[in-house]
Specification:
- The complex is a heterodimer of chains A (123) and B (229).
- In chain A, 84% of the residues lie in helices and 0% in strands.
- The two termini of chain A are 34 Å apart.
- Chain A has one domain.
- Chain A has four helices and no strands.
- Chain A is globular and about 55 Å long.
- Chain A has 123 residues and is mostly helical.
- In chain A, 32% of the residues are buried.
- The model of chain B has no long low-confidence stretch (mean pLDDT 84).
- With 229 residues, chain B is α+β, with helices and mostly antiparallel strands.
- In chain B, 44% of the residues lie in helices and 20% in strands.
- Classes of the chains: A mainly alpha (123), B alpha+beta (229).
- At the A-B interface, helix 1, helix 2 and helix 3 of A face helix 1 and helix 2 of B.
């Protein structure tokens, strides 16, 4: 579980050393990209826990999700409606879902080990 | 530890996340420092659209300024005075003489066909306008914007001035064009003037003088309409 943390730390360090900030007009897009990245990370961890992780699927889903979200945000900008809220809601829901699945998977693993251990001890 | 594909994938995405996070935070801090309100996105949108508008107006302003610089009031006034016939004009053109027929009439011939009628004169002037004449005068009387022709016994009334034959019509314009337009085969002159043996001649001239319009120019009923922008 330390892989994402290490990755994020490397990213933050690189970010600190690159003196760049996002133009105000694009802040919305970055926010969505951050959410998409978070969603991708949680999704990836869950897939890994289910032993279903496929690298190309993971990367392509990350990029398509981000692109669609950016497109929605752009459309919203044109139409004057905050359509990107939809993307934010979907991403948030998925993050929470994935988080709960990850939690369950970890608990299952721990309890399964604990249970088997205790059973072994009991018998 | 062996690096697996999911390490790579999640690591890279996490890195992107960290990077974006820092950038976003930096922008956010900057924005907080400058803009205290929460409606930053709205303001940003407004700002960029206003900036576009400003650019548009600046361009328009520049264009109008240039036009203003190029605009010469005196020249405009001179042009308008020329158009309305308030100043005498001179220039290249043609000189037409039109007169009643000299033909000795037989008993059965109706003399009414062998004199110049007001409508012939009017149509002739019309032909001249159509051929690109810039100014026309008959017997030294300038044809203005509101000039009308009417029949007055043996004479022709142009506006309020009585004219008698021979009618001398001078027109400023491209002499060749004017002459060719009038002498067009099957045209007005051939059919309505030459066929009645009326005396008719055209000369081109390098300098024709046309006096100013002497009729009244007054507007009792008409008012200018403000041009819509």
């Amino acid at each position: 579980m330390y892989i994402p943390i290490i990755g994020a730390l490397i990213g933050i360090i690189i970010g600190v050393f690159i003196p760049y900030d996002i133009p105000i007009n694009f802040v919305k897009y970055t926010a969505i990209a951050i959410l998409a990245a978070l969603d991708a990370i949680f999704g990836g961890i869950r897939a890994q826990l289910d032993q279903k992780f496929v690298f190309y699927k993971f990367i392509s889903s990350f990029f398509t999700n981000t692109a669609l979200a950016a497109l929605l945000a752009y459309l919203g900008d044109i139409l004057g409606i905050d359509i990107y809220m939809g993307a934010i809601v979907v991403f948030s829901i998925r993050i929470f879902q994935n988080l709960s699945l990850i939690r369950e998977a970890i608990f299952d693993r721990v309890w399964w080990h604990a249970g088997s251990d205790s059973k072994d001890k009991d018998i | 530890m062996r690096i697996k594909s999911w390490h790579l994938g999640i690591g890279v995405v996490s890195m992107v996340l960290g990077l974006l996070f820092v950038f976003q935070l930096r922008t956010e801090w900057k924005m907080r420092a400058v803009l205290p309100t929460r409606q930053v996105n709205e303001l940003a949108k407004m700002f960029s659209s206003q900036k576009l508008q400003l650019e548009k107006y600046q361009n328009e302003n520049e264009y109008l300024r240039k036009q203003l610089k190029d605009y010469d009031r005196d020249r405009e006034i001179v042009r308008l005075r020329m158009t309305s016939g308030l100043v005498p004009l001179k220039g290249k053109g043609i000189f037409i003489t039109l007169s009643d027929s000299d033909k000795k009439l037989k008993n059965y011939e109706d003399p009414v066909f062998y004199i110049v009628h007001y409508d012939q004169l009017e149509l002739l002037v019309n032909e001249l306008w159509a051929a690109g004449a810039e100014a026309v005068a008959i017997n030294n009387y300038r044809i203005g914007n509101t000039t009308g022709f009417s029949c007055a016994g043996t004479t022709i009334l142009v506006d309020t001035k009585r004219l008698a034959p021979p009618y001398e019509i001078s027109a400023i314009g491209d002499p060749k064009n004017l002459k060719n337009a009038l002498m067009m085969p099957g045209g007005f002159v051939e059919q309505q003037i030459l066929s009645f043996n009326l005396k008719f001649s055209i000369e081109t001239a390098d300098e024709i003088e046309i006096p100013a319009y002497k009729g009244s120019i007054s507007f009792d009923y008409a008012e200018p309409v403000e041009e819509a922008k």
